[in-house]
């Protein structure tokens, strides 16, 4: 049981954040729980001085940009939506190594924000970093498990001062805070900062990203429906990954040589450990059939990842 008190957290945030942030600030909002909660908390503390920026990296979920715009509108914040997808696709062209991917995305994120901040005159960059992000990003005596985009990806020289109001919180505490602030993003499943780029294993080209975007949507939609029908409990996080593996299959009576999608669903409490979820067989079959039917010319094999964390991590990269 967490001893975290959202009332005390907000009391201290309202007292301390205006002292820490004494000028215009911008926050990168991804629509995930962390950045949305950070935006709502900081907006309460500094109000009009905050601009929320959503960057469409091209690696977002299906219909995510529209959903995020609605969240931002409902928060009543000043916000700006920037389509930077072409720049991100170009930056990741030819990049295969997961750490290079993460760092490239992190650096471009900051570059895009710095441009917006210059335009807007922002002195502070608010980030929704939470405890597991910096713990896993290494430093000091810790090993680097993976560089979370908002930690390891930051360039050494920054023009803006970074403020991370949720830095000491774990995921369950952020959700408690979200409920306290009456934000309906509280129940949204986590989505990694580098987005679908870390769910396309190998080069995250626009074409391969589109495949994983569809596959993720199908996996999410089928699991959501199964949860609604009472067939299973909701996993903590569930998605699809596109593998750089081609296998032989058959379509009608014609040989196919297509790509493989892995489906992953996990139970977790704070993302530091996770257990692979037991998905009923019928639900797995619906996911597999719908993915191979919808993406007929691309995918001819679907597998389910049964690895816990550790030894796996939740995302594949
Ligand atoms: P891993 O893959 O490290 O993920 O077991 C733990 C949780 O964090 C999410 N994740 C990220 N979140 N920036 C984030 O804000 C990142 O760079 C990042 N990488 C992974 C992941 O989806 C899971 O919920």
Tags for this entry?
317 residues, alpha/beta, Rossmann fold, GMP Synthetase, Chain A, domain 3, 2 domains, five-stranded parallel beta sheet, four-stranded mixed beta sheet, 9 helices, 20% strand, globular, binds xanthosine-5'-monophosphate
Concise structural overview:
With about 325 residues, this protein is α/β, with parallel strands linked by helices. It folds into two domains: about 180 residues, 3-Layer(aba) Sandwich (Rossmann fold); about 110 residues, 2-Layer Sandwich (GMP Synthetase, Chain A, domain 3), CATH 3.30.300. It is built from nine helices and nine strands.
Topology:
Blueprint: H1 6-20, E1 25-28, H2 33-46, E2 50-56, H3 64-75, E3 78-83, H4 85-91, H5 98-120, E4 124-126, H6 131-136, E5 161-163, H7 171-180, H8 206-228, E6 237-251, E7 254-268, E8 274-276, H9 281-294, E9 299-304
Parallel strand pairs: 1-2, 1-4, 2-3, 4-5, 7-9
Antiparallel strand pairs: 6-7, 7-8
Helix pairs in contact: 1-2, 2-7, 8-9
Residues 133, 136, 146, 148-150, 190, 192-194, 237, 271, 309, 313-315 line the site of xanthosine-5'-monophosphate.
Domain GMPS ATP-PPase: 4-190
Keywords: ATP-binding, GMP biosynthesis, Ligase, Nucleotide-binding, Purine biosynthesis
EC number: 6.3.5.2
């Amino acid at each position: 049981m967490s001893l975290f008190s959202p009332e005390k957290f907000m009391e201290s945030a309202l007292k301390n954040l205006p002292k820490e942030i004494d000028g215009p600030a911008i926050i990168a909002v991804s629509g995930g729980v962390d950045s949305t909660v950070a935006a709502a908390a900081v907006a309460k503390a500094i109000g009009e001085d905050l601009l929320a920026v959503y960057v469409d990296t091209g690696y977002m979920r299906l219909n995510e940009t529209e959903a995020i715009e609605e969240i931002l509108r409902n928060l009543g914040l000043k916000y700006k939506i920037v389509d930077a997808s072409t720049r991100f696709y170009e930056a990741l062209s030819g990049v295969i190594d997961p750490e290079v991917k993460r760092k490239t995305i992190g650096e471009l994120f900051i570059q895009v924000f710095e441009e917006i901040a210059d335009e807007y005159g922002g002195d502070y960059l608010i980030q929704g970093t939470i405890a597991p992000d910096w713990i896993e990003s290494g430093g000091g005596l810790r090993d680097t498990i993976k560089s979370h985009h908002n930690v390891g990806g930051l360039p050494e020289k920054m023009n803006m001062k970074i403020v991370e109001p949720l830095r000491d919180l774990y995921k369950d505490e952020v959700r408690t805070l979200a409920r306290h602030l009456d934000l309906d993003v509280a129940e949204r499943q986590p989505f990694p900062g580098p987005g679908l780029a870390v769910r396309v294993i190998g080069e995250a080209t626009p074409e391969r990203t589109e495949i994983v975007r569809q596959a993720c949507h199908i996996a999410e939609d089928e699991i959501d429906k199964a949860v609604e029908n009472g067939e299973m409990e909701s996993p903590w996080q569930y998605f699809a990954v596109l593998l750089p593996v081609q296998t032989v299959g058959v379509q009608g009576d014609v040989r196919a040589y297509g790509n493989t999608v892995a489906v992953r669903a996990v139970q977790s409490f704070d993302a530091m450990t996770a257990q692979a979820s037991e998905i009923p067989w019928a639900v797995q079959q619906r996911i597999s059939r719908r993915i191979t039917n919808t993406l007929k010319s691309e995918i001819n094999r679907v597998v389910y990842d049964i690895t816990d964390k550790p030894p796996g991590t939740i995302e594949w990269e």
